[in-house]
Design brief:
Oligomer: single chain
Strand order of the largest sheet: 1-2-3-4-5-6-7-8
CATH class of the largest domain: Alpha Beta
Number of strands: 8
Radius of gyration: 20 Å
CATH superfamily of the largest domain: Aldolase class I
Active site: 92
Number of helices: 14
CATH topology of the largest domain: TIM Barrel
Function: Catalyzes the synthesis of 5,6-dihydrouridine (D), a modified base found in the D-loop of most tRNAs, via the reduction of the C5-C6 double bond in target uridines. Specifically modifies U20 and U20a in tRNAs.
Pfam families: Dus (PF01207)
EC number: 1.3.1.91
Binding site for FMN: 10-12, 62, 131, 163, 203-205, 225-226
CATH architecture of the largest domain: Alpha-Beta Barrel
């Protein structure tokens, strides 16, 4: 099993292959997750939803679904593609996900999740993990979470990533559900105490590596989402801070040069600069000129004929 001390959360429309390549440039050790991909997209979609850059490892596919046969088939495909793990989404509260009978609503069906885990594990040689909430709607007692983890662990799941906030399946948008109801980190700590043999990671509201290190006193891993997306350069400190890795921390200028080369390769194959640059808007946050950097990329990266020089021109507006 790969070390999950730090991971970047799966974020729909955000953690695509370009964002993940960017994050891998910043940190060699952080575990990266795909956006959630549904079984239907993999099995019946017209696009290739699973391709990635070899540099992205360690890399986890987050899978959305609940049909056991489809989940097994997709786990096999993920293994063939070379993913390091498959993660089952039992945490997303959106209506679209509920209508597909996956995401957070599956917390009320632990036996079904357990069956998915068991059969996916039996069919592949890569770990199958689960990302959940601490509860859903009025099913928010500690006993409810304990029963869910116990049932799914008995089926062979060795690693749970728990978003320390319950999901409201009606009445709140997914955006609202990122802030309401309040976080309950202690409940996740208690799960680790009760299941000391399992790897337990925590997600939700974590913004700094100082907070991460506090959680790591109690748990095996920390998953950070929006904070990394909005302030990606924080990842440049991850290997040094959390793993005491002595490799030099990349400067922003070095990151820009590496990503410029990546953009050149991508554009040469028919891609557009904006597909990559949109994930880099927060790279210079905190520096004088960061606003001009963001604006220059936003206004120019979608233009016909744009190339990597645009990234360097944008960076020239920043005072390091």
């Amino acid at each position: 099993m790969i070390s999950h001390k730090l991971s970047v959360a799966p974020m729909l429309d955000w953690t695509d292959r370009h964002a993940r390549y960017f994050y891998r440039v910043l940190s060699k050790r952080t575990v990266l997750y795909t956006e959630m991909v549904t079984t239907g997209a993999i099995l019946f979609g017209k696009g290739d939803y699973l391709s990635f850059n070899d540099e992205e490892h360690p890399l986890v596919l987050q899978l959305g679904g609940s049909d056991v046969n489809a989940m097994v088939e997709c786990a096999k495909i993920a293994e063939q593609y070379g993913y390091d793990e498959v993660n089952i989404n039992v945490g997303c509260p959106s209506d679209r996900v509920q209508n597909g009978r996956f995401g957070a609503c599956l917390m009320s069906e632990p036996q079904l999740v357990a069956q998915c885990v068991s059969e996916m594990q039996n069919a592949t040689g890569i770990p199958v993990t689960v990302k959940s909430r601490i509860g859903i709607d009025d099913q928010d007692s500690y006993e409810f979470l304990h029963t869910f983890v116990d049932t799914v662990a008995q089926a062979g799941c060795q690693h749970f990533i728990i978003h320390a906030r319950k999901a409201w399946l009606s009445g709140l948008s997914p955006k609202q559900n990122r802030e309401v109801p309040p976080l309950d980190y202690e409940r996740v700590y208690q799960i680790k105490r009760d299941f000391s043999h399992l790897a337990i990671s925590i997600n939700g509201g974590i913004k700094t590596f100082e907070q991460s290190q506090e959680h790591l006193q109690h748990l095996d891993g920390v998953m950070i989402g929006r904070e990394v997306y909005q302030n990606p350069y924080m990842l440049a400190q991850a290997d040094k801070t959390l793993w005491q890795d002595n490799d030099a921390v990349l400067t922003r200028e070095a990151v820009i040069n590496i990503m410029a080369d990546y953009i050149d390769r991508y554009v040469a194959n028919g891609g557009r600069v904006w597909h990559v640059a949109r994930h880099m808007l927060g790279l210079c946050n905190g520096l004088a000129g960061a606003k001009q950097f963001r604006r220059y990329l936003s206004e120019n990266a979608n233009k016909e004929g744009a190339n990597s020089q645009l990234l360097k021109d944008a960076f020239a507006k920043v005072s390091n």
